[in-house]
Specification:
Elements: H1 15-21, H2 24-29, H3 35-46, E1 54-58, H4 64-72, E2 78-83, E3 93-97, H5 103-113, E4 118-123, H6 133-154, E5 155-166, H7 171-181, E6 182-188, E7 199-207, H8 220-223, H9 226-233, H10 239-249, E8 271-273, H11 274-279, H12 283-289, E9 292-294, H13 298-304, H14 311-318, H15 325-342, H16 348-365, H17 367-378, H18 383-413, H19 419-431, H20 441-457, H21 467-475, H22 483-514, H23 516-527, H24 552-571, H25 577-599, H26 610-616, H27 622-632, H28 647-650, H29 675-678, H30 686-697, H31 702-712, H32 718-725, H33 739-748, H34 757-772, H35 776-805, H36 811-826, E10 834-838, E11 856-860, H37 862-881
Helix pairs in contact: 3-4, 6-7, 10-12, 10-16, 14-15, 18-19, 18-20, 18-21, 20-22, 24-33, 31-34, 35-36
The structure holds S-adenosylmethionine.
Length: 882
């Protein structure tokens, strides 16, 4: 215990003040206020900051506590500070200027936190003091209650609320309220808090987060009600003495009958001479009522030098209000010893001790009764009743909150409300704090009831597998009266939703039609050529028509993937016929699968894999092959149900034990198929096909390439990659969300994966290589050319054979003629000349072949001829430049 400090002047300049204002340590630490040390010490004792991810500091200016929170809380924590006066910026901290007693303040915090809950709520508020002490203390208590109101709204279950209270008449009432809402409540005075100050810090841990909190618990009118009533009725007569005892024997116990200071006695700080304590017949009372024992007279000062007056005793005498049970015992022992040394009545002590213990028992035994009495006196229901009522209400509230949530999401979908409002409404409801400043209850009641009825009507399952809720819902017969109205309303809402969905689909169709890509696809589809591989999922028919509830997010992701693939396919058209064929086959595998499900449940005979071929090419299988072939001719009996065989044996029997003929599954070997066919994935499992597809075409985006490069270069581990996959975009519930919303989310609500320059370069290079390949038409033209050349050569050879068979010709003549024929056959076919006739002069207006023109011709006008010539010139010069 430190020395007592004066409240004014240099007395203020205690160790912590100096630390805060002058010392090197503070400058190093840069705290704005000495109060920072209080929080540091509180945190040292209770360690609530280190594990917190979200903290709200109410009455935070100038920001000392915020600085401490920012320092001790983990990086990336959310820290919000509010005060009447503005707070200079602090890194990692968001601050507002607001009065914590107003709804605006609550809304500001709500906006900032969204759906987050705070792990810690701090309150170090002090109202503008300077009026009468009682008023100051009362406003402080009110402020504490207001901060508690915010705390219960924003705190997470198990969270911590730290508040500053003044030791006043309201103290015990506040402590009682804290006790109702938190598992552990401890009042403490950190060493850096001046002893002369009446402030004490209450650390409330393990927030119970009741579903429903009776507004009375947070209403100053109710919480501090006993002030006048108890004083007036005189019911607490003698309670001072009781409290004094309790102060000593149960310093940390809630005292419900404490009436604070006597009427007219507003002295906050009581000093008792040590002599009074030593000589008093009621030492417990002295210890319980006084703040400090002082050694003023010469005799008392002399006691200070005695060996029994240890530094502990001296420190204990300095501030009685912060002592524990053991400290009081030390003081009482010291008193007894001193009384012995002084020759005062020694017999009184054991009696006193006995009385004390009797009192303790009595106090403990009466605890329950006191509680009961207090409840009665305050006009509150008993604790048991409160609990029962609260749990019943909590159930109702939970159900209503769920309904409201559903309703609000619907409203949001219809753009009738902003997402932000959801949390607010839910909180209003769950806290039921609508009676005074946060009054929304009336407005929401009707809506909740409607929601509830609709659920009942639709026989919807009440979430959170709460059977009680269901029973309760069923029991609420009164609500059935509203049934028709609600049904009607719900029907209208559904109709409106359906209409909106229809309009949205139409809009999507229009968009697609406008899209050139879509046009190209459509044309191809109509022409039946170069049909794009529609993707594995295409077997469901038109994707856009698919029900979002049947696949929802996956449908969108698959669609997105397909869009990306198809667009890249389009760009590198042409020569990728082979690849396309593969994909078409993959697609057909899945579509076949669907068809088969209707017509034939058996799997198709599978081609052996390369591994299987190698395996079965071993000598020991030669006989088996022959045996099977001999037996039936066919390699596989048509009636063998391949689908019933294990996958491993189906894929070629690789895992079958050699020598066990019975276990062997002989797969058909389609000799007509080339290697390319053998290596194709034909597992029939869409998942395998998807994987194979991704393996082949997966690295088509810069993001994918970046990740792949990071994996290869060991900048990223697979575990981290998987972990990163679980982000806020990946775990969104999409049930019941409309198509337009999912469409929009698929476009915009996706993780922003950083891409590297190298990845973009790689992709571009790949694209360039694809672009460099000839397009299909050119390949076809070249093929035709080759075919013509081959035909010419064939023709020449046939002619040469005839020449060779001619007996009239000499060998020399034959050789010359054959050489000429072959030369002709190998040379390009001569282009047939097309005559260009300018339609002017005599040719103008001529219809049909002009006179004197033989062979191919084309009629042109003068202008066209010029243009054609100019074009040729241009092409020529362009060719030269290249
Ligand atoms: C002791 S200071 C807080 C010091 C702070 N914990 C720190 O470490 O810097 C008390 C603060 O409470 C603020 N305050 C008092 N009443 C308030 C109210 N109704 N709303 C918001 N802040 C209030 C005052 O403006 C004052 O800045």
């Amino acid at each position: 215990m430190g020395k007592a400090q004066k409240k004014t002047g240099k007395g203020r300049l205690d160790k912590y003040y100096k630390l805060a204002k002058n010392s090197l340590k503070l400058r190093e630490q840069g705290y704005r206020a000495r109060s920072a040390f209080k929080l540091i010490q509180l945190n040292k004792k209770f360690a609530f900051l280190e594990s917190a991810r979200c903290c709200i500091d109410l009455c935070a200016a100038p920001g000392g506590w915020l600085q401490v929170a920012s320092k001790y809380m983990p990086a990336n924590s959310v820290i919000v500070g509010v005060d009447l006066v503005s707070i200079k910026p602090i890194p990692r901290v968001v601050t507002f200027t607001a009065d914590i007693t107003t709804p605006q303040c609550r809304n500001l915090i709500r906006n900032e936190l969204k759906d987050w809950k705070a792990d810690v709520v701090l309150h170090d508020g002090a109202p503008n003091v300077g009026t009468a002490w009682v008023q100051d203390a009362y406003s402080q208590s009110e402020l504490v209650l207001m901060s508690l109101k915010l705390a219960v709204e924003f705190l997470v279950r198990g969270g911590t609320f730290v508040t500053k209270v003044f030791r006043s008449v309201d103290y015990n009432n506040l402590m009682w309220v804290f006790g109702q809402l938190f598992g552990k409540v401890e009042a403490t005075k950190p060493p850096s808090s001046r002893n002369v100050s009446a402030e004490i810090f209450v650390v409330c841990r393990d927030f119970l987060a009741p579903r429903h909190i009776d507004p009375k618990f947070l209403d100053p009118k109710h919480v501090f009600k006993d002030l006048s009533t108890s004083a007036a009725s005189g019911l607490d007569k003698g309670s001072s003495a009781n409290n004094a005892h309790e102060n000593v024997f149960m310093p940390e116990k809630k005292r419900r009958k404490r009436d604070g200071y006597d009427d007219g006695d507003h002295t906050l700080f009581r000093q008792v001479p040590a002599g009074d304590f030593v000589r008093s017949a009621e030492p417990i009372n002295v210890l319980g009522l006084a703040n400090k024992i002082v050694f003023q007279s010469e005799q008392e000062k002399g006691w200070l030098d005695l060996s029994i007056t240890t530094p502990d005793v001296k420190a204990n005498c300095d501030d009685l209000k912060v002592l524990g049970k053991r400290d009081f015992k030390t003081l009482l022992k010291w008193r007894l010893t001193l009384r012995g040394e002084l020759g005062l009545d020694m017999k009184a002590s054991p009696v006193e001790e006995l009385t004390e213990s009797a009192e303790i028992t009595e106090v403990i035994d009466e605890e329950q009764q006191i509680q009961q009495e207090v409840c009665e006196l305050l006009g509150w229901p008993s604790l048991e009743r409160l609990k029962a009522e609260a749990s019943a209400k909590a159930k109702r509230e939970r159900r209503r909150a769920n309904e409201l949530k559903t309703k609000t999401i619907q409203r949001m979908q219809l753009q009738m409300t902003a997402p932000l409002d959801i949390g607010l409404e839910l909180h209003d409801l769950s806290l039921k704090m609508g009676e005074d400043i946060f009054d929304l209850a009336g407005a929401e009641k009707g809506l909740n009831r409607h929601g509830g009825v609709v659920r009942l009507v639709n026989n919807e399952e009440i979430p959170e597998d709460n059977e009680d809720e269901r029973e309760e819902s069923e029991g609420e017969g009164v609500e059935d009266l509203d049934l028709d109205v609600d049904q009607d309303r719900e029907r209208k809402l559904s109709a409106l939703e359906a209409e909106l969905d229809g309009m949205y689909d139409a809009y999507q169709e229009k968009l697609k039609e406008r899209d050139t890509k879509h046009k190209v696809k459509e044309t191809r589809r109509k022409n039946g050529v170069l049909e794009e591989w529609p993707g594995v999922q295409n077997d469901t028919g038109n994707d856009s028509d698919s029900d979002p509830s049947e696949g929802g997010w996956e449908v969108m992701v698959a669609r997105k993937q397909m869009d990306q693939d198809s667009s890249s396919d389009e760009e590198c058209d042409g020569d990728r016929v082979g690849q396309k064929r593969n994909r078409q086959e993959l697609g057909s595998v899945s579509s076949n699968k669907k068809v088969k499900l209707i017509t034939d449940l058996r799997e198709p005979p599978l081609a052996p894999t390369r591994v299987a071929q190698v395996w079965f090419s071993q000598d020991m299988f030669r006989d088996v092959d022959t045996k099977v072939e001999d037996a039936g001719g066919d390699q596989v009996d048509d009636d063998v149900d391949m689908s019933s065989t294990p996958a491993s044996s189906r894929s070629g029997g690789v895992e079958s034990e050699p020598g066990h003929d019975d276990d062997l599954q002989i797969v058909p070997n389609d000799h007509g198929e080339g290697d390319a066919e053998i290596w194709e994935v034909r597992s029939g499992n869409p998942e395998d096909e998807r994987k194979a597809y991704v393996e082949e075409y997966g690295l088509s985006t810069a993001e994918a390439v970046t990740l792949a490069q990071q994996l290869v270069n060991r900048k990223m581990t697979t575990t981290r990659l998987i972990d990163d996959g679980f982000n806020r975009y990946s775990l969104n519930a999409k049930d019941g969300l409309p198509t337009w919303f999912l469409d929009d989310e698929a476009k915009h609500y996706k993780p922003n994966i950083p891409i590297t320059k190298e990845a973009v370069i790689t992709l571009r290079a790949r694209q360039r290589a694809l672009d460099a390949r000839p397009i299909k038409k050119i390949a076809e033209a070249k093929g035709r050319k080759r075919l013509r050349a081959a035909r010419r050569l064939e023709k020449a050879m046939r002619k040469a054979e005839v020449v060779n068979a001619n007996a009239d010709m000499t060998e020399n003549e034959k050789a010359k003629q054959i050489e000429a024929l072959m030369k002709k056959g190998a040379s390009k076919a001569k282009q047939k000349e097309v005559k260009v006739i300018v339609a002017k002069g005599g040719y103008r207006g001529v219809k049909g072949r002009p006179k004197g023109v033989k062979g191919r011709y084309t009629m042109v006008d003068a202008r066209m001829k010029k243009e054609v010539r100019a074009q040729k010139r241009r092409e020529k010069s362009r060719g030269k430049r290249r």
